[in-house]
Amino acid sequence: GTRFTVTRTPSPRVDVTRGKVRVTAPGGSWLVGAGESWSPPTSDARPTIEPIAAAPVPAPTAVAAPIAPAPAPAIHRVSQQAAFLAAGRLEATDPARAAKQFRAIASGHDAWAPPALYSLVELHAASDRDAALADCAEYLTRFPHEAQVEDVTWLRVEILRAAGKRDEARSAAADYLRQFAHGSYAGLAERIATPP
């Protein structure tokens, strides 16, 4: 279940999105947790990733002169906003990876979960209608008072229409009108909800 990425250029970096990863590089070993990233104190360090396990502590060795400890690397939390923006940049080139990142953010409970789930609805609407409908249902259940609830309610109608599910689309349009009688899509919803 551990998820992380390793970037080697322009300088090594490890970003952990789930679980914990031990990074070993010249100068020490660091445990990097979910939402954190690691970069070496110098650009010539090459980290290696090891599974998290109790590692034996090496016995101290005698040295002629004390060695100054290496400066600690910068470990900082990857903000949900930065993760959301990174997922957005991936949509055009790697939609599957973007979907995984949006899903990870949407699974949270902070302010970025609703927009991430909305982005997931839009992303799936173009490629996987069943997943998009499931995302819509999740959004409407988890975030019924968020700003994008009208758009998600309408997207559900559009996805059902695109899938050729006319009766379900008609019912969804009627649901939309009950909630948003004067909404942005009310005129079109009335035409769809009215039987031929």
Features:
three-stranded antiparallel sheet, 7 strands, alpha+beta, single chain, elongated, four-stranded antiparallel sheet, 196 residues
Question: How would you sum up this structure, described in words?
Answer:
- Helix content is 44%, strand content 17%.
- It has 196 residues and is an alpha+beta fold.
- It has helices at residues 80-90, 95-106, 113-125, 129-142, 149-162, 166-179, 186-193, and strands at 3-7, 13-18, 20-25, 28-33, 36-39, 48-50, 74-77.
Q: How large, in whole angstroms, is the Cα Rg?
A: 24 Å
Please tally the helical runs, counting DSSP H or I stretches of 4 or more residues: 7
Beta-strand content bin: 15-25%
Through-space gap between termini: 51 Å
Which oligomeric state applies?
single chain
Order of helices and strands: EEEEEEEHHHHHHH
What's the helical proportion of residues?
Answer: 40-55%
Q: Overall 3D geometry?
A: elongated
- Profile the largest sheet: 4 strands, antiparallel
Provide the structure class.
Answer: alpha+beta
Low-confidence stretches: 48-57
Please report the total strand number as a whole number. Answer: 7
Arithmetic mean of pLDDT? 82
Q: Order of strands across the biggest sheet? A: 1-2-5-7
